[in-house]
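Tip: read the tokens left to right.
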């Protein structure tokens, strides 16, 4: 009788216990899944391991912008200006110095396009300068309980002393969802238009995962591919934090698998999962991790922060990310021109020129 009960328990709980491990993969980094309403942690793997957040940093930039909106310091129609400092940021909208946009448009560009220049524009508007804004970011992080996070810039471009953890990113995501539900639609945007150009979101789970409704992706070579992904089904919202994916597809698949799993087995997991983001025991502090698998991508191979993390024959390799970006963009443009020629031949009308975007630093 006891044997039969044991077999029944294993049969029922086996998928609950094993599926997240199978979804993790050999090169898995930290991950955490929690329920947005209660903060209950459904799954945690190395939740306190220090990691470069990449563009997940922009969640804090957005959070401080929402706070300023709530306080009345700014409105959605307030204008931000592209400064010379913002213009120097890599992988943004590449606006001319002096160009203005509203806070509403800036938030869309920050979240959908992950525009690094726009993050600096918001920082300068809210705090007067980037150093003062970074100080505000760190002060706010301590205030809301992000005890193992340190910010060095508002956009997530690599800095060796900028780090966070899966738990801290989950705390930040929960704060945004709890305090500013009216701004959730920004994170659910799958695209936007700016200056006549169509811009797609880097969050490929939107429209592909049932109930997906945000939040943010991030990528730099030493961090790998990061994501904070939210989905809501039958009134229940779950959020997954996945850090250090070896590729965009691997990151998305792991986040998808974790969310699917804990929606399916939510009832079983809640029988014994009682810890929240605040009460989950902390792991001992560890040095900031560098994602070995991502540093073996040829475009990242020659980056100084990846030294020692790649095959020896790549030590003197020339970074190819920019060249690869040009190649992919050229192919896309050729495809657009070919389609335009076919349309002209068929209708005799000149089609509107399409915009092609490819950002090798944020996928």
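Filled-in amino acids:
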């Amino acid at each position: 009788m006891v044997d039969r009960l044991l077999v029944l328990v294993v049969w029922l709980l086996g998928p609950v216990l094993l599926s997240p491990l199978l979804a993790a993969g050999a090169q898995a980094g930290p991950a955490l899944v929690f329920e947005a309403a209660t903060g209950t942690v459904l799954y945690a793997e190395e939740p306190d391991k220090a990691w470069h957040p990449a563009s997940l940093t922009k969640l804090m930039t957005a959070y401080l912008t929402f706070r300023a909106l709530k306080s009345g310091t700014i409105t959605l129609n307030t204008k931000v200006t592209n400064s010379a400092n913002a213009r120097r940021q890599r992988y943004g909208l590449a606006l001319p110095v002096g160009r203005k946009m509203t806070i509403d448009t800036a938030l869309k560009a920050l979240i959908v396009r992950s525009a690094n220049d726009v993050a600096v524009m918001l920082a300068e508007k809210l705090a007067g300068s980037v150093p003062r804004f970074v100080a505000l970011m760190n002060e706010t992080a301590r205030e809301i309980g992000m005890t193992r996070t340190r910010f060095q810039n508002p956009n997530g471009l690599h800095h060796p002393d900028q780090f966070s953890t899966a738990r801290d990113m989950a705390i930040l995501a929960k704060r945004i969802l709890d305090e500013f539900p009216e701004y959730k639609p920004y994170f659910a945007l799958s695209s936007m238009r700016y200056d006549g150009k169509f811009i797609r979101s880097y969050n490929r789970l939107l429209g592909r995962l049932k109930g997906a409704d945000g939040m943010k992706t991030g990528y730099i070579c030493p961090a790998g591919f990061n994501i904070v992904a939210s989905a809501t089904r039958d009134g229940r919202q779950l959020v997954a934090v996945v850090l250090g994916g070896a590729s965009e597809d691997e990151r998305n698949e792991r986040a998808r698998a974790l969310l699917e799993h804990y929606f399916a087995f939510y009832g079983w997991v809640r029988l014994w999962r009682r810890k929240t983001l605040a009460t989950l025991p902390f792991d001992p502090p560890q040095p900031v991790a560098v994602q070995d698998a991502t540093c073996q991508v040829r475009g990242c191979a020659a980056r100084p922060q990846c030294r020692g993390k790649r095959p020896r024959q790549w030590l003197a390799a020339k970074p190819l990310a920019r060249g690869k970006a040009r190649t992919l963009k050229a192919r896309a443009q050729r495809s657009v021109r070919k389609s335009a020629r076919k349309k002209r031949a068929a209708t005799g009308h000149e089609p509107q020129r399409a915009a092609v975007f490819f950002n090798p630093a944020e996928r």
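The CA atoms of residues 46 and 186 lie 29 Å apart. The first helix runs from residue 2 to 24.
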